[in-house]
UniProtKB/TrEMBL annotation:
CDD domains: SYLF. This is Lipid-binding SYLF domain-containing protein. It comes from the Bacteria. Residues 94-181 form the Ysc84 actin-binding domain.
Amino acid sequence: MHRIVRLFTCMVFVSSLLWGNEERTLESANALQLIMRNQPESIPVELFAQANAIVVLPDVTRVGFFVGGLFGNGVMSIKGINGWESPLHVALGGGSLGFQFGVERSDIILFIMKYEVAEAIRSRKITLGADVSVAAGPMGASITHMRDFSLKQDIYAYANNRGLFAGVSLGGSVIGADGDARTPADSFAAKSFVETLKRLERR
């Protein structure tokens, strides 16, 4: 009887863990779809075309009480030779000093332009602005009309905060894989996230 109880408990734990993985991926897909539906001309098409990986972090929280902090979880999909890979779970965190109070939540998108940077995030934690360059993403449907602008940074970042969408600086924040968690490629959540990336890439 005790063995049956332990087995049942283990099954519940595993199923809840899998659901948690899929829930995070679905939230990321929904955040990306919402941004692109409400701000369709805000991100240059060149970023989707040239990025080697995309990170989506829904509901990233910034808190401040003299010492500020930032933390959030999301997923990263790397563009392989056969297209976008199944989402890998990642975590973002950081801190800052200064006169700051309050709580702010944002959905954040990172366009990773170099494959080696995506691999570094997959294998270890990196500091944005120190280990790799990061900049607020350019606004507009295309960069062709932007004089003296080229995609030279390692990462371009955007944030959606209560409908206000803009490029954002994340210098000093740390990002890396959240354990070995990956949403199964054949799951509804993974397919939804990858299909969203494909649609945005073709727009």
